[in-house]
Write a structure and sequence with these properties.
CATH class of the largest domain: Alpha Beta
Number of domains: 4
């Protein structure tokens, strides 16, 4: 029956293509929801294979649907096909909520990558220019473990016509290359690139850069964001450093195209003299394994989040000395204090800046750790006072007793005019537990009023994400200075509970963090991060960069409307102007402190393809930028209408 449908559709669309081959998966026998491996005889007579595919999500049944995050990775692969290939096209469908990211390969070389999609809406991709004169194989492979489930069907290819001359000779074009901010001392910079190739797919995009007037050049590989937009995270540098950068791209036929533009930025030095600077603090009980010690997952989390000061628990390391741990996780220029006395799971403090004094206050409720404290010589007139704590699990009454002792020590030794925070694993089951109320009491209240969350608005921090165990509690002098935490271009106004496993509405994996790190074996808790904008003490503040909230890539079929909001904020409360490179579809009115713009594009009559769009927020002459990709997907001619009509007729006569 499916052969009849495809024959009728092929006849109805013959004006558009003449296929030398067609694979409609008539011999694919899988029908259930389990992911399985197997083989079948294709319409071309070769043996096709499928890996980790199911058979209950159909475009026109039967249809293989490749799984997400499967081991081994899901794919569909042909046998050897004769007489070459001119062009290739296929139907595809996003099966669930995760976007498609599917490589189409000929003889192992990527010739196209299908991305995005609208859930359960099928589309036609192609024609893809291949121009292979010899025998070939084709495969359809999930890009990575995060690629969404995808169904494929009706693969059609034309014979080789001899016009390819051994493959395309075009070079990819690096159209645009920008940095998102002018950074302050040791601030992360994201470089965005728009890369175009109208014949083949891009195999590699790299940014090459120098801090020595091109006397020594280094490179970093860019990753695909979506469509033709790539991004790369640059190394962090101290104030006064000038970074110059450009880029090149390589396509699947090893032709290289170089950017014609060389950009540069100079790192500001606001934490050296005058102005203000961002201090990122973190509470971390992120040990894993069976020995209550730091292992690679927790180390990578520190490396990716780049905190300036950490209240750290279970401060052990079995692969070297504590100094080795600090050097690997933070850097050789970091300082630390770790409580002594041979405690089994000691608390401690790690700091980018010198520790002026440190020690421990006795925890009489437990024998294997105490309360570690440190006074840190941060830039400016006021020192930062930190207490690292690990309260007991045995009961809320015991935890309240511990909180009272910590408050007594803080009140007796420090002033509310100091910058103070208590951070760590508090093992509290609720937000209003008595220990938290004790911390919040006078004479030096420590505030839990601003509650960090992950990108899915979950503020719980234990491994199962069901209880608020971990906290950063600042006093009022410090709490008043909290600012948005920005990581990889994503802004968290209340701070961040970091969980590498969270994928909705997006996954946050600052390099080198891996997606499974927060779910490592016996991982204790999630890290909690807050950022504070600290004055340097001379009465002035620097002109901070405005912050663009994270903007997602977008895909739509021709005729649909692309519509979303763009939000920018500025901690200096300066007037923000929000603009877009596609100004005809964007509107915004300047405002102080926060501004919202509206992007609206009715795609009727639009050309299919990928469009790179740049949004720029400008406040007091300082800019921040983001680049996204909008993918306009062609409708599969009138195939959907014909299919539905034919299915209706067949059901009536059967």
């Amino acid at each position: 029956m499916k052969t009849l449908l495809i024959t009728l559709i092929t006849l109805g669309t013959a004006v558009f293509t003449f296929a030398a081959g067609l694979e409609n998966f008539d011999n694919y026998t899988v029908t259930g929801s389990s992911y399985v491996n197997g083989t079948f005889t294709g319409q071309d007579g070769s043996t096709w294979s499928y890996t980790q595919c199911r058979g209950d999500i159909d475009i026109i049944a039967p249809t293989p649907c490749m799984g997400k995050g499967r081991t081994p990775s899901a794919e569909v692969r042909s046998g050897t096909i004769h007489d070459g290939c001119g062009t290739l096209s296929l139907d595809w469908m996003k099966a669930y909520s995760t976007d498609v990211n599917l490589d189409v390969k000929i003889n192992g070389n990527v010739v196209a990558t299908i991305t995005g999609g609208i859930k359960t809406n099928s589309a036609t991709y192609g024609p893809i220019t291949v121009n292979i004169s010899a025998d070939f194989t084709m495969s359809f492979e999930q890009k990575d473990e995060n690629a969404g489930q995808v169904a494929i069907d009706n693969i059609q290819w034309t014979s080789y016509s001899g016009g390819g001359g051994g493959g395309p000779t075009n070079k990819p074009t690096v159209e645009t290359i920008i940095n998102d901010v002018i950074p302050t001392n040791n601030q992360l910079v994201t470089v965005y690139l728009s890369v175009f190739d109208d014949v083949t797919t891009i195999d590699e995009v790299k940014v090459f850069y120098t801090v020595n007037d091109w006397g020594a050049v280094a490179t970093r590989e860019a990753t695909l964001s979506a469509g033709k937009v790539y991004k790369v995270y640059m190394p962090v540098y101290s104030g006064g450093t000038t970074v110059r950068y450009s880029a090149y791209a390589v396509n699947s036929y090893t032709n290289s195209g170089y950017a014609t533009v060389t950009n540069s930025y100079r790192v500001k030095s606001s934490d050296i003299s005058g102005g203000s600077y961002t201090c990122r603090v973190m509470a971390a009980n992120t040990t894993s394994g069976t020995h209550q010690a730091y292992e690679n997952p927790g180390i990578r989390i520190f490396q990716g989040l780049k905190p300036d000061v950490v209240a750290i628990q279970e401060f052990n390391y079995e692969s070297g000395s504590i100094r080795d741990l600090i050097d690997e996780a933070f850097g050789t220029n970091y300082y630390y204090y770790r409580e002594g006395g041979g405690e089994q799971i000691p608390n401690g403090i790690v700091s980018r800046w010198p520790i002026k004094s440190s020690g421990e206050w006795e925890d009489k409720e437990v024998s294997n750790r105490d309360f570690a404290w440190a006074i840190i010589d941060i830039p400016g007139d006021i020192d930062l006072h930190v207490v690292s704590v690990h309260l007991l699990t045995s009961g809320s009454g015991v935890r309240n007793t511990e909180a009272k002792e910590i408050k007594r020590q803080i009140t007796n030794n420090w002033s509310d005019n100091d910058y103070i925070f208590v951070g760590g694993d508090m093992n509290t089951s609720t937000r209003n537990e008595s220990a938290i109320q004790t911390f919040g009491s006078f004479p030096i209240p420590l505030s839990d009023s601003i509650k960090p969350k992950d990108q899915n608005s979950n503020d719980d921090t234990n491994a199962s994400r069901s209880k608020p165990y971990d906290r950063v509690l600042p006093n009022s002098a410090l709490n008043d200075l909290q600012t948005a935490t920005v990581i990889d271009g994503h802004s968290f106004p209340d701070g961040l509970v970091y969980d590498s496993r969270v994928t909705s509405p997006y996954q946050l994996l600052p390099s080198p963090i891996q997606s499974g790190d927060s779910g490592a074996s016996s991982m204790q808790h999630m890290g909690v991060v807050k950022d504070f904008l600290i004055p340097n003490g001379d009465g002035t503040t620097t002109n901070s960069s405005p912050v663009l909230n994270s903007i997602s890539n977008y895909s739509a079929h021709i005729g649909n409307t692309v519509s979303f909001e763009v939000i920018a904020t500025d901690v200096d409360n300066d007037t923000i102007a929000l603009t877009c490179s596609d100004s005809s579809h964007f509107s915004s009115i300047s405002a102080s402190g926060s501004v919202t713009g509206d992007y609206l594009w009715s795609t009727v009559g639009a050309e299919p393809g990928n469009y790179s769009i740049i949004f720029t927020a400008t406040a007091n002459s300082v800019e921040s930028k983001q680049m996204i990709n909008i993918s306009i997907i062609p409708e599969p001619f009138y195939l959907s209408f014909i299919i539905y009509q034919l299915l209706f007729i067949i059901r009536r006569i059967s």
